[in-house]
Design goal:
TIM Barrel, 8 strands, 6-stranded parallel β-sheet, 255 residues, alpha/beta, globular, two-stranded parallel ribbon
């Protein structure tokens, strides 16, 4: 078993309007399971700084910077002595997500005061660009502006270096990777699933996506298989494949 990175978005108190958000009570159930199951929770920056402290090491991340993360995620993490990493879309701080639904309570964004408090309490703050575009569709100079402007805003607000980034929509191209390096970022999270591998490109960190309605039991399976799709049909196919492979090996050994 290796380390894993989880990707969350909003954590509203009521039923999520987006398939990417998780109701706050379910998120607390996730945290309780993670603690009971013996996972060591660290920030992504800590993962990048050195080898995982144990075989069961986990980083929790949040994309976009929704305001409901403050009560729905930050406070429960703080109560349990845990830390997480937030990727913030800086043009929307204190406002609403302009790429999302029409303005409503669930796409309201964290304020400067909240972000500063979270940072002061040990939460890691990274960038999610300035305006949340599909970076792969922008020319290189516009990509550099998105990345450098977001970094500048966060560093001025927090008074500390910002090293991490997460790609809006999970999309990027070679120009994005070059712009990240030239803008002074040290690592970035993708949306590709799988185990965290320290030897892989630090700008393509894998993450497991959490969807609306994912229970603690679903999370357990995702942690076991390091995959976004842990439906029973998918698992049946997986185990059938393993059994077929094993029977094939056994048959060859008997010859």
């Amino acid at each position: 078993m290796s380390a894993l990175v989880l990707m969350y978005h909003g954590t509203p108190r009521t039923r999520p309007l987006s398939r990417w958000s998780l109701q706050a009570d379910l998120f607390r159930a996730h945290l309780d399971f993670i603690c009971r199951d013996g996972w060591k929770v660290v920030t992504v920056g800590a993962l990048q700084a050195g080898p995982p402290p144990s075989q069961k090491t986990l980083a929790i991340t949040f994309d976009d910077g929704y305001a409901d993360n403050f009560e729905g995620a930050f406070i429960p993490l703080l109560e349990r002595g845990l830390k997480a990493t937030w990727f913030i879309t800086t043009s929307c701080i204190g406002g609403h997500a302009q790429w999302d639904r029409p303005d409503d309570e669930q796409n309201r964004m964290l304020s400067k005061t909240q972000l500063l408090e979270m940072s002061n309490q040990g939460m890691e703050i990274g960038s999610h660009s300035h305006t949340h575009p599909d970076l792969s569709r922008l020319p290189p100079e516009e990509q550099r502006h998105e990345l450098s402007r977001s970094k500048e805003v966060l560093e001025e607000l927090l008074g500390k270096r910002v090293d991490g980034f997460a790609y809006p929509y999970g999309r990027y191209d070679q120009s994005t990777l070059e712009a990240l390096k030239s803008s002074g970022y040290r690592w970035a999270c993708s949306t590709k699933s799988g185990w965290y591998r320290s030897q892989e490109n630090p700008f393509l960190i894998r993450r497991i996506t959490i969807f609306s309605g994912d229970t603690a039991a679903t999370l357990k399976r995702k942690l076991r298989f390091a995959d976004n799709d842990v439906s029973w049909r998918r698992l049946a196919t997986y185990y059938a494949g393993r059994l077929s492979h094993r029977l094939g090996l056994d048959g060859r050994h008997r010859r």
